[in-house]
């Protein structure tokens, strides 16, 4: 890991240099909503944010994505989709959202290797931005991460006043910085200290905490608990939690066609909808909201940790903040731990 | 200000009735001064019920949201009533559902609350980014007193209330079984200010305005799920054949969905603003609903959710309805 | 370059006509050999009351520049009062479209009886000219970006 510093006033030059070769996605602001968007000029960027409304998963796992095209009829055929090799940079991604890509990798890079996601993942460089002021519902520390964690990004920026403290972590990141070294200066010991104190301060700001020990085992024992009924009574099944979640990745596939051509597309779907599990026969294995609420918790906190090294939650706090009826995942896990078997 | 004891007493009385299954109300949420819907099956559970200016949720969705699981051989359907704590607009939503025969009056017991307006959490959050640290929010005559960082802040009511609450014409529940406190005398008149702002734009500006909002829509349908009047067993957008709105998310389909949602609420929407509150992408859906409410008021002199006996707007007609646009 | 930009804009109009009056009116216009623009593509429905506002929105999405809805004169509906319900529905739809910045003139409604072939021809002429002036539907046209 090498450390540099980049003066804040040279950031626009840095972004411009990147734009020559890469599609740069960065946080932009519209009213109160921050969104990662393809930017055309450095001044589009707004770094005055806690986190974006929609997670940056929407860049690599687009909400609507074509799988292949087809022509119907007797001479019909399937036209495979070209896989784009455009190079992308996701600038100022928060460490929690960067982690979500490592979690998504375990899904899309498993038995079946999803070419659409993986090609984009392969061709993108994640430039993280440490979270100096975590939000009220952030709890990434509960998963052993930190708001300035560099584990899942290629390059990490940390705001230390006049300049950014820049760490290059992966080979991808190192190569990118090597190409434009003249913009960076070597970091001094003082800069390093500033970064450390920013990290400490950020960690201290995080008030919320999810206790995870024993949850995986406990969940195995309380599948039939009344707890799920009581949580699900409130739930209105709107699916906001899953759409805004950086690790939720379920999708639906549909054919859309005109008379002359068509395409099979995939769109985000949510396990909170009853149509999600509806069989063609009319049978629904998760008929009630109780089953669906329970499934969401189990998928994240039981099935996922059993099958991979991660819990499918990064502690970004979006589902807590935007749940219309205040179903708070931290509270749910706390209740899980309290249930007597 | 609602008397806490009176509320808890009323809930206790209701929940201990033999013909009542449970009562839906509000309790303190998990952080800050957040409030969450609460279900009391016994009088002990009623103790936690509260009513604060943050009790925004329209609980009228819950009777229709209740899932009836398949019955066993000797089981009988539980036909007991559901108790609801209702504000003015919530009660109007119940009236509207009853009018459409979605519920029977005797299915619900209504604990009415004369409402002086509820706080829009989005406004509160943008004002206090560290929203979770607010411990208390209290209503004074024309302002809210907010305890934040151990300091008391006083904010005029209009700055925090939902736009729909500021000029709410129906603060009192039109139907109720028990009323907490006294009815409010209100002389408010809906001004449709926001609607008029959009109406005054040119056609191009209007579309630019809505295009920007609809472009953002992620079609999670939270607006539908939170709406007390969207209780169809199967929503038109979920139908696969015919497919009214395609699943792909783009401007055309998003607009079609939003047109469809607004039209299906025409003459039914009671203006509780739940759709706008739950929208994760901050689309001003109330403006659409209010626009139709305004026009329907002007053209047909019809107000939804006032009387259980009234006929639905689109299920009735007058032979002399205006028709200037017809060739 | 697309065909549309080379040639002059020809409006594409979908007409939902009720079986008992306006469709018969259109038929009469045809059998009487009246001249009127060929821009209206007719879909016959049993009653104008059958017309869901989503038919109109879907038509506009899928390539129509305008929609014409034809029903019986008030009081003449074969099913007593189907057309009255449509009248309310379309009024509201037009109000909403106008509010969204979509030209409400794209959606037109007419009462044409089975004897009014002449009127039908005139209505079609009028709306074709109107929509030619407004230009092609841009706002909610479906773009298949596969």
First-to-last CA distance of chain C: 19 Å
Q: List low-confidence stretches of chain C.
A: none
The number of domains of chain B is 2
* Most residues in contact, chain pair and counts: A-B, 46 and 43 residues
Extract low-pLDDT stretches of chain B.
none
- Tell how many strands the DSSP assignment of chain C holds: 4
Round the mean pLDDT of chain B to the nearest integer and report it.
90
Mean pLDDT of chain C: 91
Quaternary structure classification: heterotrimer
Give an account of the 3D structure.
The complex is a heterotrimer of chains A (341), B (327) and C (146). By secondary structure, chain A is of the alpha+beta class. Chain A is built from twelve helices and twelve strands. Chain A folds into two domains: 204 residues, no CATH class; 124 residues, no CATH class. Chain A starts with a strand and ends with a helix. Chain B is α/β, with parallel strands linked by helices and 327 residues long. Helix content of chain B is 32%, strand content 13%. Chain C is an alpha/beta fold and 146 residues long. Chain C has one domain: 3-Layer(aba) Sandwich (Rossmann fold), CATH 3.40.50. Chain C is built from five helices and four strands; from the N terminus they run αβαβαβαβα. A four-stranded parallel beta sheet of chain C has the order 2-1-3-4, with helices on both faces. In chain C, β3, α4 and β4 form a beta-alpha-beta unit. The mean pLDDT of chain C is 91. At the A-B interface, α8, β11 and β12 of A face β2, α9 and α11 of B.
Features:
heterotrimer, B: 327 residues, alpha/beta, five-stranded mixed sheet, 12 helices, 8 strands, C: 146 residues, Rossmann fold, 5 helices
Summarize this entry quickly.
In chain B, 32% of the residues lie in helices and 13% in strands. Chain B is built from 12 helices and 8 strands.
